[in-house]
Design goal:
142 residues; alpha/beta
Length: 142
């Protein structure tokens, strides 16, 4: 556990991160970069179910609450509440994402993609600005 931060810092500082709002084109761009440049690819969405399964009430209260709701319950709540909880969900999940990245030990130039890569979380790990892109779609694009 003691070496975990230095391993993660090495992995993250040598990778490319695509963050931003849902449905903004992150996956399309990440898949293209991974394929065209033969880079390993980490897609946060591919780990949704596993992350929800390992969430616990103490560390991940928003995730646990979401796991108990159906789609109607999630989407029928007030929009401002949905937005607040979405950001809380991403923040709770970030530690799980960092744990996943340890599977890429000794790899460089990983393409990482997901809405959970919030600028504040990425910045806290000292990711160089030239290795990050945050996408926000126009109304017409979405």
């Amino acid at each position: 556990m003691k070496n975990k931060p230095s391993k993660l810092e090495s992995i993250i500082s040598s990778s490319f991160i695509l963050g931003g709002s849902p449905c903004s084109g992150k996956t399309t761009i990440a898949e293209r970069l991974s394929k065209d440049f033969d880079l390993p690819y980490y897609k946060v969405d591919d780990h949704d179910m596993r992350h929800l399964e390992i969430a616990n009430q103490k560390d991940h209260p928003t995730m646990v609450a979401y796991a108990k709701m159906n789609w109607d319950q999630i989407w029928s709540r007030p929009v401002d509440l949905q937005v607040r909880e979405e950001f809380a969900f991403y923040k709770e999940r970030f530690e799980m994402i960092l744990d996943d990245l340890l599977n890429f030990e000794n790899r460089v130039n990983i393409v990482m993609e997901g809405a959970a890569f919030l600028p504040s979380l990425v910045h806290s790990w000292g990711v160089p600005a030239h290795r990050t892109i945050f996408l926000v779609p126009t109304k017409e694009f979405q």
